[in-house]
Amino acid sequence: MQTRLKKAKFFRNPSLNTEKSESEGLSYITSEKMAQTNPLPVPLGPWKITVYDQENFQGKRMEFAASCANIMECGFDNIRSIKVECGAWIGYEHTSFCGQQFVLERGEYPRWDAWSGSNAYHIERLMSFRPICSANHKESKLVIFEKENFIGRQWEICDDYPSLQAMGWSNNEVGSMKIQCGSWVCYQYPGYRGYQYIMESDHHGGEYKHWREWGSHAQTFQIQSIRRIQQ
């Protein structure tokens, strides 16, 4: 714990996919078509995610290498399991990248509770998703501020913190933050629990002046744990 405290500084003030037959139960969509739904100009990168319309990687499946704003346009009614093979992604509760956010790092997610983690809100819908282009676990840095608009006490963070208060932050709220490099997932409660907010250095210019900019589901300044996103 002493080592981490030394790191904390307090101050004032796609490539194209190949079509397969429906009999194989496998559907693909080209990167060119997916790019049309991408909300931001994203360079081609090492991203790959496979989504399934049934739990435990059963049923219809589809591979993506870029954003999807509405999985229903691909013939799905919902996403019920996921495999992330390359890169880090954000999944959203609703279409058009709205609603609760879920960080999707490399690995397998056989059910909705695997990506919602210890979130107590039991959201079983995931309708849109996109890659996190700025994720860089080794070189990540953010500054949190006591009040909105980058006012008040500030704290530079370069590591994972399961409890901000245990490491010296004075309350359970963060007023604003600047993401200087990398991408982070911030949680409403200690121990990486509660609502997830994904903060990226290439969104909002890396500046989040108010909790309303954390996501369409954000309702409070409350953030009590933070970690870097694994690429």
TrEMBL record:
The lineage of its organism: Eukaryota, Metazoa, Chordata, Craniata, Vertebrata. Gene3D superfamilies: Crystallins (2.60.20.10). Homo/heterodimer, or complexes of higher-order. The structure of beta-crystallin oligomers seems to be stabilized through interactions between the N-terminal arms. GO terms for molecular function: structural constituent of eye lens. Belongs to the beta/gamma-crystallin family. Keywords: Eye lens protein, Repeat. GO terms for biological process: lens development in camera-type eye; visual perception. SUPFAM superfamilies: gamma-Crystallin-like. The gene is CRYBA1. This is Crystallin beta A1.
